[in-house]
Write a structure and sequence with these properties.
This protein is mainly alpha-helical. The protein has helices at residues 3-9, 18-41, 62-78, 83-106, 110-128, 146-166, 173-191, 195-215, 225-249, 259-266, 268-284, 297-303, 308-328, 334-376, and strands at residues 45-46, 58-59. Keywords: Cell membrane, Membrane, Transferase, Transmembrane, Transmembrane helix.
Length: 377
C-alpha cells in the first residue's frame, strides 16, 4: 500500500489531496499568460471563419497549459502513489501532446491522429490492465474474452476522446464538461479510496479551472485546441474505463453491477452529440462524419438566443440531472437503469428546445390577439 493511502486511511491526510489540485491550478495559471503571449507573437491563432462563434483571432494552444499542469502533478505524485498506474498515463499524454501541438500548428491528418490515439490508449490498457471485462448483464451480455475486452476497451477510449473533441466549439463548453466530469469522478474515486485516480481527477480539475478563467476572458482569451481536446478527452476516457474496471473486479463495490450505466450518465452529453452529429452528417447530409458544420446541439442552443455561458450552464445542469437519475435508479434492474438514463438524457437535452417552441407559440398567439384588439379599436 502506498504512503498517501496509508495516511488517508489513518484519517490524517485528506488535506493532502488539496496539493495536486492547487499545484495544477497554480501551474496552469502561471503557464497560460506566457502561452498566450507567444501564440500572439508567432501568429499561432485561430482566424474566424463562417463556422466560428467568435470575431477575433484567438490562440489555440491552451492544451499546452493543461498538459503541462497535469503532467507535473502526475509525475510528482507518482513517487508517492501508484507509479505503475500513473506513469503509463503520463507517457500516453506525451504522445497525444506532440500530436496535438503539431495539429494545432501545422494540421495533422485524421488517420495520423487516430493512430496516435490508438497507440496511447493501448499503451495504458496493456501496461495497467485497466479494461472493461464484462457488460454487466446489459442487453443480456456478460463476461468478455481477453482480446475482445482489449478491443472493446480501445473502442471506448477512441469514442470518448473523439466525442469530447467534437463538443469543443463554444466558449467554456468543453472545459466545463471536462471539469464537471472530472469532479464527478474525483468524488467517486475518493469514496472508493482510489487515491491515485483521485489525484488524476483533481489535477485535471485544477488545470481546467485555470483554463476556463482565460477561455472566458475578453482580453486574454485562449482555446484548448486539438492538444487540449485530445489530452482532456484521453483523461476522461481513462477515468471512465478505470471506474468501470475497478467496480467490475470488486463484487462488494457499490457500482459493481451498474458501473457502465453511471459512466453513460456522466458522459451522456458528448456521446449523445456524437451519435446525433454522425447521423445527421452521414445519413441525412451524406457527408463525411468528421466534416465540420454547425449541426451540434450547442450550435442549435445558440440559435435559440442563448449566450455562450447560458448554453454551458444548461448543458451542465442537464448532465448533472442525468447522473442523479442514474444514482436514484441503482436498485433497479441494470437494463431498466439503462432505459431510465437514456430517457432522462433525451428529455433533459430536448427541454430547452421544447420550452423555446412553447414560448414561440405563445408569442404568435399573443401577436394575433393584439392584432384583433387593434382591429376592434
Amino acid at each position: 500500500m502506498n504512503l498517501i493511502n496509508q495516511i488517508i486511511q489513518n484519517g490524517n491526510g485528506t488535506a493532502l489531496l488539496f496539493f495536486p489540485f492547487l499545484l495544477a491550478l497554480v501551474t496552469a495559471f502561471l503557464a497560460f499568460p506566457t502561452i498566450i503571449f507567444i501564440a500572439h507573437a508567432k501568429q499561432l491563432v485561430d482566424v474566424p471563419d463562417k463556422r466560428s462563434v467568435h470575431s477575433k483571432t484567438v490562440p489555440t494552444l491552451g492544451g499546452i497549459g493543461i498538459f503541462f499542469a497535469v503532467a507535473i502533478v502526475l509525475t510528482l505524485c507518482g513517487a508517492f502513489l501508484d507509479a505503475k498506474l500513473l506513469m503509463p498515463v503520463v507517457g500516453a499524454l506525451i504522445i497525444l501532446f506532440f500530436l496535438g501541438v503539431k495539429d494545432d500548428i501545422l494540421i495533422l491528418s485524421p488517420k495520423k491522429k487516430m493512430l496516435g490515439q490508438i497507440i496511447a490508449a493501448l499503451m495504458v490498457i496493456l501496461i495497467t490492465d485497466i479494461r472493461i471485462t464484462t457488460f454487466s448483464g446489459i442487453l443480456g451480455l456478460e463476461d468478455l474474452p481477453y482480446f475482445i475486452s482489449i478491443g472493446f476497451t480501445l473502442f471506448v477510449f477512441i469514442l470518448i476522446i473523439n466525442a469530447y473533441n467534437l463538443i469543443d466549439g463554444l466558449d467554456g463548453l468543453a472545459g466545463s464538461v471536462g471539469l464537471l466530469v472530472s469532479m464527478f469522478y474525483g468524488f467517486l474515486f475518493f469514496n472508493m479510496q482510489e487515491m491515485s485516480l483521485t489525484v488524476v481527477s483533481l489535477a485535471l480539475v485544477g488545470s481546467l479551472i485555470a483554463f476556463l478563467y482565460f477561455n472566458f476572458s475578453k482580453v486574454r482569451k485562449i482555446f484548448m485546441g486539438d492538444t487540449g481536446s485530445m489530452v482532456v478527452g484521453f483523461l476522461l476516457a481513462f477515468q471512465s474505463v478505470a471506474f468501470i474496471s475497478i467496480n467490475q473486479l470488486n463484487p462488494m463495490a457499490q457500482f459493481h453491477l451498474n458501473a457502465p450505466i453511471i459512466v453513460l450518465a456522466i458522459l451522456f452529453f458528448p456521446l449523445l452529440d456524437t451519435l446525433r452529429i454522425f447521423y445527421v452528417r452521414v445519413v441525412i447530409l451524406k457527408k463525411h462524419p468528421f466534416s465540420p458544420d454547425k449541426n451540434h446541439i450547442h450550435h442549435h442552443m445558440l440559435q435559440l438566443g442563448l449566450k455562450h455561458w447560458q448554453v454551458t450552464l444548461v448543458i451542465s445542469i442537464a448532465s448533472t440531472s442525468v447522473l442523479i437519475s442514474a444514482l436514484l435508479s441503482q436498485s433497479f434492474n441494470v437494463n431498466l437503469q439503462l432505459v431510465i438514463v437514456i430517457f432522462a438524457g433525451l428529455v433533459m437535452f430536448s427541454l430547452p428546445f421544447f420550452i423555446n417552441y412553447s414560448v414561440f407559440k405563445q408569442r404568435i398567439k399573443m401577436n394575433k390577439f393584439l392584432k384583433k384588439l387593434h382591429l376592434i379599436n
